[in-house]
């Protein structure tokens, strides 16, 4: 008698999928840890840190590949029943909600810093010496790219679900992936030409954290779409859950960019904030800084 997997035992008795033991969750966690350590060591200028970072990236991408491969095999073996597909959809929705809360925290940090600028940055926002990125140039172009990709992603899903047209779906999906790559490229150029860095006051830290994490999610998004693109030969009207979830995730990336563009690039850069209720004269400023210095020495 051949050895059976958990997925094939009593499959007819219930609509659920009992997943076989997999090494990929643990392996992905360790790879992400190595990649994060590589980033930290690279930013602090350690020797050979770039090799650790490269190894972490390669490990993450490899595990992403084999993990997606196993999930695709499960789908082809008819393990993804209607009940399982519903659970996967709810799981993606919950994941997107948690990611949305993450970005709410980043944007809240930016707004808090803007509304209550501290003495250390002269109680102004943007801080003195910071030249914000022009919202009407590359950020506006990136907004147009993501707005266009919103429609091309929907058209690719419409082509497969309503028309069952693989060729048309491939065209629109390829355009969406290309737009995502262009967005990432222009984001890189924007960072390269920026007059401030992540260590330039709380403004730089908030700006690069929010836009950088969004850029990372864009990369994950077009990689997700690329996997769907490669699986189009086996995709049908009734077998397209992966594409549906990829498009849903891409819409989340679009919505987050609207918030980032509106609050950070547009509102946060155009409006100069100097709260009068926190204004102090030179002697008060001297006393406050002196107290801070004494407190830091005490601890």
Could you give the topology of this structure?
Layout: H1 24-43, H2 49-76, H3 82-115, H4 138-161, H5 166-193, H6 201-230, H7 241-270, H8 282-298
Helix pairs in contact: 1-2, 3-6, 3-7, 4-5, 4-7, 5-6, 6-7
Characterise the protein shown here.
- With 299 residues, the chain is an all-alpha fold.
- The chain folds into 2 domains: 1-80, Helix Hairpins; 84-115 and 126-271, Cytochrome c oxidase, subunit III, four-helix bundle (Four Helix Bundle (Hemerythrin (Met), subunit A), Up-down Bundle).
- The protein contains 8 helices and no strands.
- The protein starts with 23 loop residues before the first helix and ends with a helix.
- It is a multi-pass membrane protein.
- Residues 12-269 form the Heme-copper oxidase subunit III family profile domain.
- This is Cytochrome c oxidase subunit 3.
First CA to last CA: what distance?
A: 70 Å
CATH class of the largest domain: Mainly Alpha
- CATH homologous superfamily of the largest domain - what is it? Cytochrome c oxidase, subunit III, four-helix bundle
DSSP strand content: under 5%
CATH architecture assignment name of the largest domain: Up-down Bundle
For this entry, what is the oligomeric state of its chains?
single chain
CATH topology-level name of the largest domain: Four Helix Bundle (Hemerythrin (Met), subunit A)
Number of strand segments? 0
Number of domains: 2
Average the pLDDT over all residues and give the rounded result. Answer: 84
Q: Report helical residue fraction.
A: over 70%
Low-confidence stretches: 276-283
């Amino acid at each position: 008698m051949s050895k059976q997997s958990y997925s094939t035992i009593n499959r007819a008795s219930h609509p659920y999928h009992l997943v076989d033991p997999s090494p990929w969750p643990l392996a992905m966690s360790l790879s992400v840890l190595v990649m994060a350590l590589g980033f930290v060591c690279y930013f602090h200028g350690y020797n050979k840190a770039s090799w650790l970072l490269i190894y972490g990236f390669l490990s993450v991408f490899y595990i992403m590949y084999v993990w997606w491969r196993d999930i695709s095999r499960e789908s082809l073996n008819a393990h993804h029943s209607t009940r399982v597909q519903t659970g996967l959809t709810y799981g993606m929705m919950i994941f997107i909600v948690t990611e949305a809360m993450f970005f709410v925290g980043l944007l809240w940090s930016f707004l808090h810093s803007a509304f209550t600028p501290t003495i250390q940055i002269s109680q102004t926002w943007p801080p003195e010496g910071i030249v914000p990125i022009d919202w009407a140039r590359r950020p506006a172009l990136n907004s147009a790219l993501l707005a266009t990709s919103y429609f091309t992603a929907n058209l690719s899903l419409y082509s497969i679900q309503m028309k069952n047209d693989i060729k048309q779906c491939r065209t629109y999906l390829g355009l969406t992936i290309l737009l995502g790559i262009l967005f990432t490229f222009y984001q890189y150029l924007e960072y390269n030409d920026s007059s401030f860095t992540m260590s330039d006051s709380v403004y730089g830290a908030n700006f690069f954290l929010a836009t950088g994490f969004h850029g990372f999610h864009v990369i994950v998004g077009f990689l997700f779409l690329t996997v769907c693109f490669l699986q189009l030969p086996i995709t049908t009207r009734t077998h397209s859950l992966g594409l549906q979830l990829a498009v849903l995730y891409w819409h989340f990336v679009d919505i987050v960019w609207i918030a980032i563009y509106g609050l950070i690039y547009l509102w946060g850069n155009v409006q100069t904030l100097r709260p009068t209720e926190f204004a102090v004269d030179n002697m008060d400023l001297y006393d406050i800084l002196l107290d801070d210095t004494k407190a830091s020495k005490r601890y």
